[in-house]
């Protein structure tokens, strides 16, 4: 029952209409009987929006594309992990102080660790943008050997230098991708308007590889469909939303997240 004491949480982004965070967190609030609600807000002027949410005493703000970097300018404190990654995806309002951190990296690692051991493995990361930074940070924490592949080689080289990665390649060096034990797509290739496009050719995927796509709309991307056909161990992108989301829920509530309920809410709404 929503009343005058209800804690209000939200996700901000633009676009935000397709976010599954409201279903996922409201299902968890209901399960635990918490007097909290989670809404989605499309934001145009980020600085003004953050100032308003603080004034209106929102208790937590989840941040999605394209605001994850810029919002760092408008919060009061940022934890060192998010600083290193260069992006935040959750802000807590701690008695008027906006404190921000990043759960994308741990969401990605929890998704992978459910299906394989990462420590000591050679991982091919495709992409060198913001999403790649969170994934690469996580892989380094897990002591993987990271090879980075990007359409623009210069960006791969820069990222490899910053995060002390093993090697950087241009994306068309597919023979090297084939040598890795794990392949992760961190680009938006495979999403609308490129549904049906894969970031790499299907025939380089081997049956003994683990293949993870952080794209989760559509649920079954061309890349993961190809990987499955090739007999690879597949990790779906919605798992990163789920495991990043369970951490966010625990930060918001200080309670253990009901992961099964959250997973069902997500899966019921996947396209
Ligand atoms: P995000 O924050 O979502 O990672 P980004 O920082 O703009 O977004 O990074 C997008 C990444 O996807 C980049 O690595 C980009 O490659 P370039 O550095 O060459 O631009 C990659 N990317 C986007 N579209 C791509 C495509 N059609 N083919 C290959 N890589 C693509």
Describe this structure in words.
The two termini are 30 Å apart. This protein has ten helices and twelve strands. The strands form two sheets. It has a six-stranded mixed beta sheet. The chain has a six-stranded parallel beta sheet with strand order 9-8-7-10-11-12, sandwiched between helices. It is α/β, with parallel strands linked by helices and 271 residues long. It is globular, with a radius of gyration of 19 Å. 45% of the residues are buried. The longest helix is centred in the C-terminal third of the chain and has 16 residues, at 238-253. It has helices spanning 21-32, 46-55, 80-85, 104-113, 130-141, 153-162, 174-179, 222-229, 238-253, 259-269; strands spanning 7-13, 36-42, 60-63, 77-78, 90-94, 97-101, 122-126, 145-150, 167-170, 182-185, 210-213, 233-235. Bound molecules: 2'-monophosphoadenosine-5'-diphosphate (ATR).
What's the topology here?
Elements: E1 7-13, H1 21-32, E2 36-42, H2 46-55, E3 60-63, E4 77-78, H3 80-85, E5 90-94, E6 97-101, H4 104-113, E7 122-126, H5 130-141, E8 145-150, H6 153-162, E9 167-170, H7 174-179, E10 182-185, E11 210-213, H8 222-229, E12 233-235, H9 238-253, H10 259-269
Parallel strand pairs: 1-2, 1-3, 4-6, 7-8, 7-10, 8-9, 10-11, 11-12
Antiparallel strand pairs: 3-5, 5-6
Helix pairs in contact: 1-9, 1-10, 4-5, 4-9, 9-10
Residues 127-132, 150-152, 155, 171, 186-189, 199 line the site of 2'-monophosphoadenosine-5'-diphosphate (ATR).
């Amino acid at each position: 029952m929503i009343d005058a004491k209800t804690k209000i949480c939200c996700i901000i982004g633009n676009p935000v209409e397709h976010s599954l965070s409201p279903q996922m967190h409201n299902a968890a609030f209901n399960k635990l009987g918490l007097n909290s609600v989670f809404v989605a807000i499309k934001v145009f002027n980020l600085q003004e929006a953050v100032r308003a949410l603080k004034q209106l005493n929102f208790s937590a703000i989840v941040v999605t594309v394209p605001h994850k970097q810029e919002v760092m300018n408008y919060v009061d404190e940022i934890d060192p992990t998010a600083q290193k990654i260069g992006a935040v995806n959750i802000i807590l309002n701690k008695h008027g102080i906006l404190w921000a951190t990043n759960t994308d990296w741990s969401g990605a690692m929890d998704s992978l660790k459910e299906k394989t051991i990462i420590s000591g493995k050679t991982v091919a990361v495709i992409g060198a943008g913001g999403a790649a930074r969170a994934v690469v940070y996580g892989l380094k924490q897990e002591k993987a050997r990271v090879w980075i592949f990007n359409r623009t080689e210069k960006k791969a080289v820069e990222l490899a230098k910053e995060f002390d990665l093993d090697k950087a390649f241009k994306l068309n060096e597919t023979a090297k991708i084939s040598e890795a034990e794990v392949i992760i797509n961190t680009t938006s290739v495979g999403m609308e308007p490129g549904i049906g496009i894969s970031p790499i050719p299907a025939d380089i995927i081997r049956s003994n590889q683990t293949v993870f796509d952080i794209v989760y709309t559509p649920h079954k991307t061309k890349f993961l469909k190809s990987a499955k056909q090739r007999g690879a161990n597949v990790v779906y992108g919605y798992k990163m939303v789920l495991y990043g989301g369970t951490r966010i829920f625990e930060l918001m509530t200080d309670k253990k997240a009901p992961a099964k309920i959250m997973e069902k809410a997500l899966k019921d709404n996947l396209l």
